[in-house]
Structure formats: C-alpha cells, structure tokens
C-alpha cells in the first residue's frame, strides 16, 4: 500500500470571531499519497491557501488533525513545526519572493546552508534549466526565470513535498508551461509529492489526483487515469 504523505481529519479554520468570523475550512478530510502530483482546484476565496498553509506547517488549524506521515502537526510546538518545514517542505508562491540583492545561486544557498541533505545549488539551478544564469540577479531574469529560481530554491533541500500556491498565476501560457514542466520533473526525478494550488481548471489534466474545492471543503476527488503533459494542456 502506498503511504500517505498527508491525511487530515476534520480540519476547520476560523479567522476572527463573533459576527465577523470567517469560516475558511469546514471539516476537511483529505488523503494525499506519497509521490503524486496533486492539483487542489477551486475558486478564489474557497480556502485553498489556508489548507496548504496548515499542512505546510505555516499556520495552525482551529480544530481537527493534520498528519504528515504518522506525525500530527496539530500537536507540534512551534519549534517542531519549524523543523518539519525545514526538513521536509518546499514552498513556491505566485510572486517568487526572491531576495533582489542576491544572485540566483545565492538565493538558493539561503536554503542549502541550513538544510539537512541539500543538493548543490548549481545542480538545483541546472535542473530548472538555469545553469547559465546562476550569477544573475532577479532583476536580470524574466518572470518565468525568477519562478524557476524559486523552484530551484525550494527543491534544493530535497523536500519530501513541494507546495506550490498559484505558481503560474503571474505568468503567460508559454512560461507557465515551462514552470509546470519543471514541477513535473521534480516529481519524477526526486520523487517529491507535488501539491499545486490553482483556480485554473486546465491544470488539473497534468495531475494524478484532482481535489475539487469549494466553500471551505472538498467537493470531489478525481483520479486521472491518464495525465497530459504541460505542453498538451489547453491553457
Ligand atoms: N488572515 C486572514 N484573516 C481573515 N480572513 C482570512 C485570512 N486569510 C484568509 N482569509 C479568508 O478565508 C477565506 C479563504 O481564503 P484563502 O484560503 O486565501 O482562499 P483561496 O486560497 O482559495 O483563494 C477567504 O474568505 C479569505 O478572505
Ligand atoms: Mg489562495
């Protein structure tokens, strides 16, 4: 049996209280097997980022349990959550969050210097097709290239799971496809579980598993028997 990377039981998240309370998650039960590409698809405001932040150890649920393998994230101290993120989790966000005063290589080194079993920064940048650009600053790179640096930074620690929150949200179709191709490579070559959060339905076709999300809960889980490559996606 394939081990789950994540499973959650009854995750709820309420922001604020009283009449202004926002119920962002309403009892989410979720299983994500190791090694899959999973697309979490839903409209803006449906709670996707909230869920990703909780299973990524960036935020805490109001109620319920979130397991990484057999460890309950809900019971961890802040320090344990930090170690969990450091050892296992890579993040890629819509707006690349690179340090503008550091080169591509130096941005990746920020992570490899503290990781337990890192790749060589140049190797991570070669993996995303930026071998020739390691000494360039973010301002010298296109949006798609900056996102690939951000992916290199996230994968250089050899993460168990790569969380990508709207990774192509700021990109055109050609560069967006290139970024999705890199995510596919990371899944295939490193065996990392890749979770892509998006509101773009077309990206579901490249997933092993599509979690349809609406109004703070899962509506449907679809297993794709056949996947499309990012090139084949109808953007
Ligand atoms: N820090 C916060 N404080 C208050 N409300 C929040 C906060 N973060 C998100 N929300 C609300 O929770 C709901 C879900 O947000 P989010 O998880 O960002 O959705 P999505 O990523 O699907 O667009 C939205 O109504 C949003 O306004
Ligand atoms: Mg979001």
UniProtKB/TrEMBL annotation:
Tree of life domain: Bacteria
Gene3D superfamilies xref list: P-loop containing nucleotide triphosphate hydrolases (3.40.50.300)
Give the InterPro entries listed for this entry: AAA+_ATPase, ABC_transporter-like_ATP-bd, ABC_transporter-like_CS, MacB-like_ATP-bd, P-loop_NTPase
Keyword terms of this UniProt record: ATP-binding, Cell inner membrane, Cell membrane, Membrane, Nucleotide-binding, Transport
Where would I find the ABC transporter domain in this sequence?
6-235
Query: Which SMART domains does the record match to this protein?
Result: AAA
List the GO terms this entry assigns under cellular component, sorted alphabetically.
membrane protein complex
Q: Does the keyword RNA-binding apply?
A: no
Kindly give the SUPFAM superfamilies that the UniProt entry links to this protein. P-loop containing nucleoside triphosphate hydrolases
Q: Any idea which GO molecular function terms this record carries?
A: ATP binding; ATP hydrolysis activity; transmembrane transporter activity
- Family statement: Belongs to the ABC transporter superfamily. Macrolide exporter (TC 3.A.1.122) family.
Q: What is this protein called?
A: Putative ABC transport system ATP-binding protein
